Amino acid sequence: MWTALVTATREEVGRIHLQRGIDAGLTPEDLTDAIALAAAGEAYSAIEFATNHWQDWMSRNNASEHYGSIIASARGSASARGSIEAYLAEVILVVCFAARHVPDGLRFHLRRAFEQGATQGQIAEGLSYLIMPCGANTLIEAVDVWLEAAEAGECPPPFTD
Amino acid sequence: MAQNRSTEEVVAAFIKSRGKILPYQRVLAEYQPELLASFNTFYTNLTLSPRDLTL
């Protein structure tokens, strides 16, 4: 999570989190998979651009299929641990899109995260990491997007009262 | 400790201390109450408690 987040935010000083990952038992391949996942998420904006402007050549279905393939490839399988689990990859991308202030991408991956079995608590924990590299205002925005997505019926709400 | 209190108690205590609770704080109260408590302390010391540059 931290590796992808500091990649998405281009926080070079965040290297401390990579070393902590290694110290906690991750392999270098795990970290490169996380970096690749954060990088793959940035393909979303290009595909979304094409979908919005060149629908004759990039339909919504085509876009979803192509983008999904990019994400699946980036999740990796190079390490003995295997690829990043699908639900976790989606939570990671929720956090990356929140960090980069891309609400439509955040909503896209929120829906997919819950479809893959992520819980509200896991989403909340992931978003809480934003406080350190991005500040609380980014967390405020992300939770507001989550509420909007839930109100639109795209995913469960963060809370019910 | 926040972890020994219900979400409702955490929310009520937060509203009592700050007057309201924003959605992101509500999320932390639900799933990360210890983090909410420590962040609130940090935020209070950073922005609310008088310091040398306070007007």
Q: What's the number of helices of chain A?
A: 10
| Unreliable residue stretches of chain B | none
Task: Find the structural class of chain B using helix and strand composition.
Answer: mainly alpha
Contiguous low-pLDDT stretches of chain A (5 residues minimum) are none
Main structural class of chain A: mainly alpha
How helix-rich are the residues of chain A, as a percent range?
Answer: 55-70%
**Oligomeric category:** heterodimer
Can you give the mean pLDDT of chain B? 91
Strand count of chain B: 0
CATH fold description of chain A: AhpD-like
Largest sheet of chain B: none
Distance separating the two termini of chain B: 34 Å
Distance between the termini of chain A: 29 Å
| The CATH top-level class label of chain A | Mainly Alpha
Helix content range of the residues of chain B, please? 55-70%
The shape of chain B, in one word, is: elongated
Element order, helices and strands of chain A? HHHHHHHHHH
Number of helices of chain B: 3
Q: Quote the beta fraction of chain A.
A: under 5%
Coarse morphology of chain A: globular
